[in-house]
Amino acid sequence: MSDHGKWVSRGKGIRFRVGLSDNVPVIDFSRVLSGDLAERKALAKEIREAATNVGFFYLSNHGISETIIDNAKAAMAAFFDLPHDEKMKIHYKNSPIHRGYVGAGNIKSDREKRGTDMHEAIELAEDLPDTDPDYLRGSKFHGPNIWPEKPPEFRDALATYFEAQLELGRRMLSAFALALDLDEDFFEPLYTRPMSRLRACFYPPQDPDWDIKQLGIGAHKDFEIFTTVWADQPGLQVLATHGDWIDIQPKAGTFVINIGDLMQRWTNDIFLSRPHRVINLNTEKRYSLAQFFGVDYDVEFDAFPTIKAAEQRAKYPSISCGAHIEERVGKAYYSET
Ligand SMILES: O=C(O)CCC(=O)C(=O)O
Ligand SMILES: [Fe+2]
């Protein structure tokens, strides 16, 4: 029997409602390629409504093949099954640019709680050579990935997923541009070396006697413009605007898309970046791929021009994509907890 809409208590000190992801819309992305502007505008309108009311939606017909996703999942599962010492060979603290293996307990997404996150992850981004000019000038977001040696197919599988997502991100930005009443190609010149990161995440099953302090990933908001998430099991929850934590169940053939803090800021808080967390209450291991999308490092706004014109002010001071992300990543990954 479905628990839909019921309140449940699980573990120590947590209650939430089940199954309300029915309220999170499924948006058919095939229309982004339509030759008919009215179709593309209808898509943009649905995105705007979801971004304004929920901050989360599902994207169907996104164009990334099952094979690309399956290969990435198989390779990451093989990596996370390796012995701890093998995984530590590519630990992220050895990388000056936020790449590599993040072990259980290494980060603390919910800075207001005492516990750290239980999940493990690999962080990667565009794989640039160590002769890249931005890397050489000390950018913390450009340069080479650190790839694991095992499994040998990891590099190809994850790089392929990352590149496919980068292209999806470009199309998403054209839809977001229409949703913001901007020119459809507004983001095109601002997305040449975009600050996109991929986190391949592994969540062990949560101890049945789990404590609110120690979750798969603690409650947090994403830093960037938007995020795409693929997951093989339930576990993601979002704090809805009405104050309940609701489950965002994975739906076959879709990605979950959520708005990040930089988008909220550049829209004068019209688009919502909502707190979310992961609790793996399944009996099996959970794997997910979360890719975060920014624009180029130096792109700077106080608010998008159409927002500023409509509201006759920008709510926040101007900030560049690079400065914003650098500050947030630094706090989450490198400060003592
Ligand atoms: O694993 C998930 O479903 C979401 C992960 C997430 O929220 C993140 O990495 O920021
Ligand atoms: Fe997140």
Quick recap of the structure?
This protein is an alpha+beta fold and 337 residues long.
Question: Please, could you describe this protein's structure?
Answer:
- The chain is α+β, with helices and mostly antiparallel strands and 337 residues long.
- The chain has one domain: Sandwich (Jelly Rolls), CATH 2.60.120.
- The chain contains eight helices and 16 strands.
- It has helices at residues 37-53, 66-80, 84-88, 133-136, 154-179, 261-266, 305-311, 321-334; strands at 7-9, 15-17, 26-28, 56-60, 100-102, 120-125, 197-203, 217-220, 226-231, 236-239, 245-247, 254-259, 276-278, 286-293, 300-301, 319-320.
- The strands form four sheets. Strands 3-4-12-9-14-7-6-5 form an eight-stranded mixed β-sheet. It has a four-stranded antiparallel β-sheet with strand order 8-13-10-11, with no helix packed on it.
- The protein starts with 6 loop residues before the first strand and ends with a helix.
- The site of fe (ii) ion (FE2) has 4 residues, from loops.
- Pfam families: 2OG-FeII_Oxy, DIOX_N.
Overall morphology: globular
Class computed from helices, strands and strand pairing:
alpha+beta
Quote the beta fraction.
Answer: 15-25%
Question: Architecture in CATH?
Answer: Sandwich
> Reading side by side through the largest sheet, how are the strands ordered?
3-4-12-9-14-7-6-5
Which series of helices and strands comes N to C?
EEEHEHHEEHHEEEEEEHEEEHEH
How would you state the average pLDDT, rounded? 90
Radius of gyration of CA atoms, rounded to a whole number: 19 Å
Poorly predicted regions: none
